Amino acid sequence: MPKTGMLTTIPDFTLTPRIDQVGAEERASRFTKRSIKKEAKVNGLKLVLNMIDLTTLEGKDTEGKVKQLCYKAMHLHDALPGLPAVAAVCVYPTMVKTAKNALKGSGIKVASVATGFPSGQASRDVKIRDTRYAVDNGADEVDMVISRGKFHAGEYNYVFDEIAAVKEACGEARLKVILETSDLITFDKIRRASDIAMYAGADFIKTATGKIQPPSSMPVALIMIEAIRDFYYKTGKMVGMKPAGGISKAKVALHYLVMVKEVLGEAWMNNHWFRFGASSLANDVLMQIMKEKTGVYQCASYFSID
Amino acid sequence: MPVTNKKNIKKSNTIKLKFDTGWSYAPAPESKSSASFNKQYDLFINGEWVNPLSHKYFDTINPANEEKLAEVAEANAADVDRAVKAARNAYEKVWKKMPAKERAKYIFRIARMIQERAREFAIIESMDGGKPIRESRDFDIPTAANHFFYYAGWADKLEYAFPNRNSNSLGVAGQIIPWNFPMLMAAWKIAPALATGNTVVLKPAETTPLTAMKLAEVIRESGLPEGVVNIVSGGGATGAAIVNHPDINKIAFTGSTEVGKLIQRAVAGTNKKVTLELGGKAANIIFEDAPIDQAVEGVINGVYFNQGHVCCAGSRLYVQESVAKELIRKLRDRIETLIVGDPLDKNTDIGAINSRQQLDTIHKYLKIGKDEGYQMYESSCSLPAKGYWCRPTIFTDVAQSARIAQEEIFGPVLAILTFRTDDEVIQKANNTPYGLSAGVWTDKGSKIFNMTKRMRAGVIWANTFNKFDPTSPFGGYKESGYGREGGLHGLLPYVNLSN
What we know:
By secondary structure, chain A is of the alpha/beta class. Chain A contains 12 helices and 8 strands. Chain A has one domain: Aldolase class I (TIM Barrel, Alpha-Beta Barrel), CATH 3.20.20.70. Chain A has an 8-stranded parallel beta sheet. In chain A, helix 2 packs across helix 11, helix 5 packs parallel to helix 7 and helix 10 packs parallel to helix 11. Chain A starts with 20 loop residues before the first helix and ends in a 12-residue tail after the last helix. In chain B, the strands form 5 sheets. A 7-stranded mixed beta sheet of chain B has the order 14-15-16-13-12-17-18, with helices on both faces. Chain B has a 6-stranded mixed beta sheet with strand order 9-8-7-10-11-19, with helices on both faces. In chain B, strands 1-5-4 form a 3-stranded mixed beta sheet, covered by helices on one side. In chain B, helix 1 packs across helix 8, helix 2 runs antiparallel to helix 4 and helix 10 packs across helix 11.
């Protein structure tokens, strides 16, 4: 489906690189063998905190819940001064206004899921309006889901055009495209969806909604990170990465950081280009930072749950 | 609209990733406290440590800092004779007569004891040989233990290994092992010999004798009958004494093709059975439809594993021209992220070169490659001031006629050649005096089978490289030697079959 008039030639997505699953899993496990100790651990954990999109995406979300989460985002653990804040708070479109107000002046971004999250089974028109609603209410970032059904049916043009249309609806807001990798299943398809999203204008690609099992894994994230690197090699354009769902332990987050460092390098080692979508990761990171500082693990009760 | 944002967009060929990040790993050295070894080792003969009749000892050093670790006895012909006599005596009086299931118990016990002391073995292996602790911990020592486990299982099942035949043990096996996988090679040699009812005189390599000495301790503690395994350290003269000893029935050698040829001459006209596992210059072939990122990892594991001190290393890389540029770019970026340094640091990917002599050999070939006019890329990492080190290195646009494409370098040096068609690459891959291993990378199953059928190499890996398992036979074609080690096939060199 080559298109003309754009800076980059759009490739034929049926020809995206093939992935050998065994090799990819082996490579991903190599990152987990890195030993991260002492100051490297503390610095890494602070970086992780700063990359978190603190998330609440529940049917039972209320303004009260969102306000509390926003307060937590700004005051992760006041007992320990000098901690960075999280990167963003991620909510449903109806909660964007509340979050925006609560976070005013903090520098923390508001991200909103949109486009019929999490299934994406909505008409194009509804998805665009969902996106505009979030942006009009002040969302700095939009996390969209792709149409997995259309993707499996081989309608790559549809998926591509939809992402491009949502990107246009985003205006200045940065667009994260959620592939929902557990719906795509194979590594070949995950790579193909990554390429479609990036060529269609994604600012970030994101693994999962966090709503279905199994959660995304390191090998899956590796496939996407390598797609980002290849896209950068070809076009010179950087695309961000956001693994989400199932990352609740500090140790795992450090493994992801190792992976970014060794595949993408310095330019991606900040929250403009890398995020963790997580609801419970922050407290484990805080607990580990306190452990490094005091030498002992503190009880989970010392860390606020929001 | 998609991809129209022009700011920050550079020309593709100027794009470079930067891996020197603000966040770096702190040193994570493995503690040496759980490993202990003596200042001096004698010869392990007939279940005891005995002073060498030669009265000579030689130093073994740590190649990462050039410090002396210990001194080890140098066995002369008289010492070897003593060891062979002990092995013969144990064979005739004990081992030959022992029921196979009893033999198996000892081999199982040795396997378990290696597992229990795996950490100690791994640390000493890395100190004595220079290999990264990640490899000795995750590969060398566990695989060594697995070889003992595997062959222990065969000991009382030989009638199933060779159906309708009787298998008879040979007698005394003389075994000479190299310095690249000291402990693993000891296991490859000793385990099948014991399982089939033979006794052993083993000579570890001159630069890496320490884990063999620790293995002797394990063997002694295991209660294995005296003289069944004898370990005599020394250099080339010691090896020659083993090869030439008239009362040895079988020679198993892993090492250089040059020495392999000497051994073949020496045993010509004798009754000795021989297996030789010698050098290699493996072709690793990447087709345009290959999973490129996984192939890059395969190339890295293929040639930089154990500093390239691997006889089956994928040191000749054939890349289909249409993907050569992309692959080389990725390889160049990848070698920047390899961590070179202290073998005992858990984050080290490439440790120290095994010896000064080997480092000189590698440097000689680096110079030859440059003089031959090939483009050389090496990692920009810094190297420690003391010890023997070599950066991971790539030569591109190499010709088939280049010496760096033909000769075994045995270091972290990769020669990259390109090809156009299947027939061409098979011809080029087979165009070598060696034939130990090869690799094929393609998404197409039928192509894999076509390639593996036509290539002359003992082991061919498809979409992976340098994978080992005790159940899988290993060995070469042509000047890479003959005979197979590992698997069911690995039993055969240690038995005589009769009807």
